[in-house]
Structures are given as structure tokens and as C-alpha cells.
Amino acid sequence: MSVDASDSSTYFGELIRVLVEKWPGTDGKMTLSLHFLDLERDEVFIRAMPPDASLSSTAVACGNHVYVLGGIRKNDATIFGYDDVNDIFQLDLKDLEHGWRKTTSMLFPRSFPLVLAAEGKIYGFERISLCDPVLDSFRSRILVHCNANDTLYAYYYDRKSWVCLGQKFCYWSESATIVDDVLYTVIYNYSGKFRSLEAYNLLDKKHLPVKWSSEFSVDPTMKGILYRLGNGKCILGWVNHKHMSFEYLRLTIWCNEQ
Q: Which SUPFAM superfamilies match (predicted)?
């Protein structure tokens, strides 16, 4: 498997993608904002989170809407000093002037829920002991990796069933994606420096060697996000907190496995 990389210092977005970050407001306090990034126009616009949204919530794009789900709310009467919430807020990207509105709540309260969208639906998972779920849209499934025992499961959302794919599966980081039945995940060294991509063939159940065809001058940080754009193209994006900017690598991936 080979990877060609090109770097850029401008903002980006995959059709409509969102990223939640803390940024100083006009009063000097840290506020939560959503960054909307557009690849075609190569520009970004920032919009404040819903005023009633809780801390530790998660944002996800589904169709023409963006949703903010879950979070925590202070409650001194509890042992931890807070409660998980099940609130959901919705923003219509075609009608930004009307802003956020509260919509139907989740069935169960969640803080930092792991969420992704598929076929017009949003799927939420408890964060504890799970890697970020990965969408395999070609096979209508969501891959879920359990940290506790390294088991890999697939949830087939078209038939609403679970299948165990492996009892002992390789590690993947918080950022992973699937291209042509190969799972790619970002790996870092012990000091948190970006090292490479890990490639695993889901059909043959074996690791593939990764070779980079070009070098890049930027240094991806931890918590980077790997986006699949289609046609063998991906983007690895991350927030540069030092320069308060969004940076990324464009990746073209091809598999020359015989």
C-alpha cells in the first residue's frame, strides 16, 4: 500500500464537516465553536455552539443538518458533581439565519458520545472502552473495536444485527477510515509524534506494509482526524493550538498488493 502526501496550511472541509474547538471569546473567556470547512472553496466559517448546549457534547453532520448531542450538566448532588444529558440541538445548513433549535432527545444520556451518520440516521455509542466507530458504507456496517478485550464487532445497520469479526484485533487510534476493504488508522510513537498509517485488509485479515511516496513538512499532532473523500483520497486534519489554525495533509492511497 502506497501513500502520496501533499501539505497545505489553509482550512478545509469535506463537503460539510464540523470540528468542535475552544476559542477565546470577545470577553476573554473560552467558548465552544463549530468550524465549518469547505474543500471546494478552501475556506472556513466559525459558528458558536448552541447557547444551551452542554459541555462534553459531540457534533455530527447528517445530510443538510448539523447536530450537537449529549454532554454534562453540573449537579452537586451527585457523586461526580455532574449528570450526563440527552439533549440534541439541530442546525439547518441551508437556513443558518434561524440558528439552532432543540429537537428530540436521545433515549439515554451520554457525555462525549461516539457518533456517526449513515443513511440519514445518527448512531451513538458509549465512549467507555471503545475506539471511535468506523463507517463501512460499502457493506452497510459500522465497525466497533472494544479496547478491553480487542474484540472487533460489526453492526449491520441495514438489518440491525451484530456480528463478531474477530476475537483479537489490531489496535487502532481515535482516527481511522476504510478504503476498498482496507482499514487505515493513524499511529503515533510513545512521545505523541505522528509516525505513519497502519493498514489492515479486512477481507484477508492481515496487515499491509505502508510506503510513503513523498515527504511532507508539517507535523500532525495527536487527536488528528482522518477523513475519507472517495476515489482513494483522504485527508488527515488537526488543530494547531500554537498558531490557532487548522492544518491538513491530502493523501492519495493506492494498494498494489498482488
A: Kelch motif
175 and 89 housed in the same domain:
no
What range defines the domain where residue 142 resides? 129-257
Distance CA 151, CA 145 (A): 6
Q: Which of 101, 127, 153 is the last residue before a domain boundary?
A: 127
Question: What is the total count of domains within the chain?
Answer: 2
Phi/psi at 3 (5° precision): -130, 125
**Which residues make Cβ contacts (< 8 Å) with residue 172, sequence separation at least 6?**
131, 134, 145, 183, 185, 198
Mode of pairing for the β-strands spanning 2-8 and 211-212: parallel
Is 155 found in the same domain as 221?
A: yes
The tens place of each residue's pLDDT in the chain, 258 residues long, gives 444 444 333 333 333 344 445 555 555 555 667 767 666 666 666 677 787 777 788 888 888 888 999 888 888 888 888 888 899 999 988 888 888 899 998 888 888 888 889 999 999 887 777 777 889 989 999 998 887 777 888 999 999 999 998 887 766 766 788 888 898 888 777 666 777 788 888 888 888 888 888 777 667 767 778 888 778 888 887 777 676 667 777 888 887 765
Q: Would you give the end-to-end CA distance of the chain in angstroms?
A: 10
Interior CA angle at 11 toward 6 and 14, to 5°? Answer: 80
What predicted TM-score, i.e. pTM, was given to this entire model?
A: 0.78
Domain assignment present for 1: no
Angle in degrees, CA 241, 246, 248, rounded to 5: 120
Q: In what order do the strands lie in the sheet with 88-92?
A: 58-62, 65-69, 88-92, 100-102
Quick check: is 183 in a domain? yes
